[in-house]
Design brief:
By secondary structure, the protein is of the alpha/beta class. The chain has a single domain, classed as 3-Layer(aba) Sandwich (Rossmann fold). Helix content is 41%, strand content 16%. Strands 3-2-1-4-5-6-9 form a seven-stranded parallel sheet, sandwiched between helices. The chain has a two-stranded parallel ribbon with strand order 7-8. Strand 7, helix 6 and strand 8 form a beta-alpha-beta unit. The longest helix has 29 residues. The chain is globular and about 50 Å long. The termini are far apart. It binds NADP nicotinamide-adenine-dinucleotide phosphate.
């Protein structure tokens, strides 16, 4: 029997991601920041990206204060070049390997189709679709070469059904949902698991401005309340961990049951 030597060390049951590097886009806020903390708790060296250095350093400091390993990579992600640059920086900081990629950075402007200008359209598709696409293009082949890796995309419940005012946002995440499945087919046979979580209304800095509208939206689901960022992060951490070793191409709803009813 031959054994494969991977770049990462083998983790323990309590810290299954020890020796692994995890890149979390949008790790300066909300779901991404909660995910970065969870992955650090599992033993990963976490690399957090975002544009806001203050929030990035604060997120890193919070992880380090709990004994975790984290670094901040400042980046305005908007195109293939910025995605490739971040991937290369992550590989450098990660000692040559990125083993977990979480695509959480996203924008979600809502509004009528007739009022949406081309710049907004481009901004949404650039961050929500193009950036994950080129991050995966840059990082998944290395994971495939090592025979292991996990990629988790953050989509949304409104990628599954039509809702007025969410055509642009929902369609961008529907593209990411299909990419999740296509990438599972492409990289899964090489040992790379690609999955997604599909959150419902979740309390984050990004949704704070929605005020009561968030509660109203959430009231339509069985749970009857908005989720917390850490509840979504728990699902992402599961998909990143070896516990999800037989889970490929899945889209896990974390939406209080909204799309089930
Ligand atoms: P959030 O609090 O607004 O955080 C968004 C993150 O994306 C921030 O870390 C932000 O970092 C980063 N970001 C935005 N534009 C960027 C850019 N151009 N370059 C680099 N980073 C950028 O959002 P959230 O509510 O946690 O949402 C996270 C993900 O979950 C998104 O993909 C969203 O679509 C999805 N989601 C959220 C909900 C919800 O109800 N909250 C529901 C379903 C799906 P900087 O500001 O530091 O740049």
């Amino acid at each position: 029997m031959t054994t494969t030597t991977t770049a990462a060390a083998t983790g323990t049951a309590q810290h299954p991601l020890t020796g692994r590097t995890a890149l979390v886009t949008g790790g300066t806020s909300g779901i991404g920041r909660a995910t970065a903390a969870r992955l650090a708790d599992l033993g990963a060296h976490v690399l957090i990206t975002g544009r806001d250095a203050g929030r990035g350093e604060a997120a890193v400091a919070a992880i380090r204060a709990r004994g975790g390993e984290a670094d901040f990579v400042r980046a305005d992600l908007r195109d293939a070049a910025s995605a490739r640059t971040v991937a290369q920086q992550a590989l450098q900081l990660g000692g040559g390997h990125v083993d977990v990629l979480v695509n959480s950075a996203g924008v979600f402007p809502f509004g009528p189709t007739a009022d949406t200008d081309e710049e907004t359209f481009a901004q949404v598709y650039d961050l929500n679709v193009k950036v994950p696409y080129f991050l995966v293009a840059e990082l998944a082949p290395g994971m495939a070469e090592r025979g292991e890796g996990a990629i988790i995309n953050v989509t949304t419940m409104v990628a599954s059904f039509g809702m007025a005012g969410m055509a642009l946002y929902g369609s961008s995440k529907a593209a990411l949902t299909l990419l999740t499945k296509a990438w599972a087919a492409e990289f899964g046979p090489s040992g790379v698991r690609i999955n997604a979580v599909s959150p419902g209304p979740t309390r984050t800095e990004g949704t704070a401005a929605m005020g009561e509208a968030l509660d109203q939206l959430a009231s339509q689901g069985p749970a009857g309340r908005p989720g917390e960022a850490d509840e979504v992060a728990a699902a992402i951490a599961y998909l990143a961990s070896p516990q999800a070793s037989f889970v490929h191409g899945a889209v896990l709803p974390v939406d209080g049951g909204r799309i089930a009813v």
